[in-house]
Amino acid sequence: MTFTGIVAAIGLAAIPALAQNAIPRTAAGHPDLSGVWTNVTITPLERPRNLAGKEFFTPEEAVEYEKHSRETRNKDIRERGTVADVANAYNDFWWDSGTKVVKTLRTSIVVDPPDGRVPALTPERRQQLQAIADAKRKRCAQPGCEVENGGIPGPADGPEDRPLMERCLSFNNATPMLPTAYNNDYEIIETPGFVAIDVEMVHQVRRIPIDGSPHLPASVRQWMGDSRGHWEGDTLVIDTTNFNDKASYRGSDRNLHLIERLTRTDPGTIIYRFTMDDPTAFTKPWTGEIPMVKSEGLLYEYACHEGNRGMTGILSSARADEKRAKAGKNQE
Amino acid sequence: MRTAIAVVVSCIGMLLAVAPASAHHAFAAEFDSKKPVKLRGTVTKMEWINPHSWIHIDVKNADGTVTNWMIECGSPNTLFRRGLTKDSLPAGTEVLVDGYLAKDGGNRANGRDVTLADGHKLFLGSSNPDAEK
Amino acid sequence: MVIRSGSALLALIALCIPAFGQVQRTADGKPDFNGVWQALNSANWDLQSHAAEAGPFSALGAIGAVAPGEGVVEAGAIPYLPAAARQKQVNFEKRWTDDPELRCFMPGVPRANYMPYPFRIAQGSGPGKNTIMIVYEYADAVRTIRMGNPGKSPADSWMGWSVGHWDGDTLVVDVTSFNDQTWFDRAGDFHSDALHVVERYTPRSPDTILYEATIEDPKVFSRPWKIAMPLYRHVEANAHLMEFQCIPFAEDILYGHLRRQAANGKGDSR
Q1: pLDDT, mean over chain C
Q2: pLDDT, tens only, C24-78
């Protein structure tokens, strides 16, 4: 790091932008990933079953798919007085879940396995998750449960019963970096020896040292794991391990080894590829690819925990449900 | 775009087909689909905060008393990127709220529809080309 | 003699101190603040001079006690308006329940810079020179300092709206658009949403920054006032931040009163 610093100071490493390569580069010669990027898209993680075998749209098919998506996700389609009506409260004015497929015209974010779908979980992991779901169902035979995103009731004895999203701990969109309902923005700042990625949801900042240092010891586990980066040619490779027991994406567990590759292919695009290698959770590793597109907008503060009145509302609703149920019993 | 104040905060329901994720929490955990409510009131303030913004309104009750209600809406960050600011829904604006009551009995509602009293409806959905960034 | 000076030279290199003690510079010729930094004082306990004091829980003994410190406020005292001085006193008396730090809330500016946790300054250069990000280990707080003109802030925030420019070798950051939710320290020093902070980061050596912050808030203080302190670089090889994700530690304070009072009630939050 110091050597690079001295060299940079003397200006020896200053590499002028080559005429045929319009990608901005840092003084060290690497593509500069700094800036605000968005990965918003309607392309789903997994290839829809009715598109089996079809890896790419034609441009005409993409237009059709986008039109169909706009029509079926029209916010006017709703039935008053239903739980679904309450559950999905916003129209597009508030959402930013996209109107376009990815510019590569892929039909899914998953590119490996070739069927574009997440591989099966291992039998042991499936059993584990089933046991958790069964325990939830059992607890929710009593009042005091509240529905989670996805419509399934979950316990609400205390905040630790609730999903990580409700606690503002994570949104399942930072490791790996995938689009969510809105604020699909990332601000990257690249410096010699360190890259920061500010993920707008939920103001998680990924810290990626690029200094050759090893991972933390296996006994140290973190919510976003422990990331270390290095350059392979023009690709930034991020290697993340040391996840804790609560962090999980699509069934992954603490043994997840996440490998991400960021390649700035033109001034307006970073191709982001990630591999989920987790042999205790998935029967085989799987890889996804999604472009990150340069954004002219800014990231704004997303102070989630500080404004988390929803958690108060959910827990007090559960207590109110229990009270009502008790009062109902007393009248029998 | 600084499309002034005719911000129709039209928090309407949506069918989530293949959408990757929902809002920060399930509204149905907090609000009761069996208890719809219609409120006409005056904005006292709007909190442009995360994870959900809140519109505070004073509602005149039948008996002449006034109750302050809190209406829950979405994250304001997307709106900031479209040019709206904390001055976009000023205090004193009259609004009509169509929502669902909080389950715990508090004076809160899910902002399903929030319309301006002057009848000026500007539906800023993704199908509206003016809403494109 | 040769061996000794050789190992001294190796030690210098190992500590990443460049020869001649010159400030490192980016490719743009600006002082290079990239790295992990931390304040070394007890300003987070109390910006003004204070003696050691017992903490709120005798079970925590010396671990939970208040560390002493000489104040970092120039001219000694914080110039509260009379009504605000009374509020400060109320805050002080309720500091063990009301300090937003207890709840793992973002600390605002300048407090973030003197929390007892390290922070990383990520300073872009070349194409990335218009952005400086400060990433704090505490609560994953982050500030993005825009070096160009980012326009007006759309709404108040916890960490404020930071606009920076260079004044010679000093990074000057103008911070506005705060909400009124943060405190300056654990002693109840506070502000309103009219807070305006002007920071100056001046390199005084390759591994120290002189940090000054002028604080102005006409609703709370009778005049602007200033704090100053060194910020020290973590010079160990490959210094990094770790996660201080404190939300689980604060949930009991925030939501404990809403827990279900069952026979098998969960006592601790995870």
Answers
A1: 91
A2: 999 889 999 999 999 999 999 999 999 999 999 999 999 999 999 999 999 889 9
What pLDDT, in 10s, does the model give residues C180-238? 999 999 999 999 999 999 999 999 999 999 999 999 999 999 999 999 999 999 999 98
Structural domain harbouring B114: 31-124
Residue B80 lies in a domain: yes
Enter the pTM of the model: 0.88
For position B91, which CATH number holds? 2.40.50.140
A245 CB near a chain C CB, below 8 Å?
no
Q: Chain A within 8 Å of C105 (Cβ-Cβ)?
A: yes
Q: Is B86 in contact with C152 (Cβ distance < 8 A)?
A: no
Q: What is the CATH number of the domain that holds C168?
A: 2.40.128.20
Q: Is the CB of residue B84 less than 8 Å away from at least one CB of chain C?
A: yes
What DSSP string describes A63-87? HHHHHHHHHHT-TT---TTSHHHHH
Contacts of residue C251 in chain A, CB cutoff 8 Å? 158-160, 167
For tokens 């109390």, what's the residue? C46
Q: Which residues of A touch C119 (CB under 8 A)?
A: none
ipTM, 2 dp: 0.89
* Chain A partners within 8 Å of C144 (Cβ): 187, 198, 299
Domain extent, residue C196, equals: 29-52+69-250
In a domain, B61, yes or no: yes
Residues of C with CB under 8 A from a CB of B: 152, 154-156
Beta strands in A133-256 (DSSP E): 145-147, 153-155, 185-191, 194-199, 204-209, 226-232, 235-241
User: Does C32 touch chain A if contact means CB atoms closer than 8 Å?
Assistant: yes
The long-range contacts involving C191-197, CB below 8 angstroms and separated by at least 24 positions, are C191/C215, C191/C217, C191/C220, C192/C217, C192/C219, C192/C220, C193/C156, C194/C218, C194/C219, C194/C220, C195/C160, C197/C109, C197/C110, C197/C160
Please state the domain count of chain B. Answer: 1
Question: How many domains is chain A partitioned into structurally?
Answer: 1
Q: Which domain holds residue A137?
A: 37-330
Count of pairs with CB atoms under 8 A, one residue in A, one in C: 162
Q: Mark which residues 174-193 of C lie under 8 Å from A by CB.
A: 181
Is residue C91 in some structural domain? yes
